[in-house]
């Protein structure tokens, strides 16, 4: 049996990609279509960018060894920033959801499209938040792999 440490490197990349998708959808849905010209919150943009800045050095520090106190603080800061971005994005689309789902008469089809894309963006932020939690909570566990399984370590 070969023993190795299970790494969760994919979780960090998942968080970065999903938050990038969420931010791109937020920007696109805020500047085009039904929501064009109705306002763009800088809080979502700034919090997402600061979360990326917090996550990159943490990953580099984890490559050198264990998780330091500074890395823990940075990961917590990234989590809080992503939560703020998520909350502001979701709350800015509440009126849109109310118009489409609770007052289902006389709304333009572009309003439904903007809502659908916004839901995808909010889900992107939610997946990024969960991925950061998975990445930085808990310790990697050793996993046993049979030597004849063909897995390369």
UniProtKB/TrEMBL annotation:
Please verify whether the record's keywords include Transmembrane.
Answer: yes
The transmembrane segments are 12-29, 35-55, 76-94, 114-134
Keyword set, alphabetical order: Membrane, Transmembrane, Transmembrane helix
Q: What name appears for this protein in its UniProt entry?
A: Sodium:proton antiporter
């Amino acid at each position: 049996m070969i023993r190795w440490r299970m790494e969760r490197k994919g979780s960090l990349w998942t968080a970065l990609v999903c938050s990038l998708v969420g931010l791109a959808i937020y920007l696109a849905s805020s500047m085009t279509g039904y929501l064009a010209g109705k306002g763009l919150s800088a809080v979502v943009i700034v919090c997402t960018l600061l979360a990326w800045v917090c996550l990159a050095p943490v990953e580099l520090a984890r490559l050198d060894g264990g998780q330091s106190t500074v890395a823990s603080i940075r990961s917590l800061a990234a989590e809080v920033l992503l939560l703020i971005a998520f909350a502001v994005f979701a709350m800015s689309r509440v009126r849109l959801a109310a118009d489409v789902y609770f007052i289902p008469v006389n709304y333009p089809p572009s309003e439904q499209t903007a809502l659908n894309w916004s839901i995808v963006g909010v889900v992107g932020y939610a997946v990024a938040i969960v991925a950061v939690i998975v990445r930085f909570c808990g310790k990697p566990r050793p996993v046993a792999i049979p030597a004849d399984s063909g897995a390369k370590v």
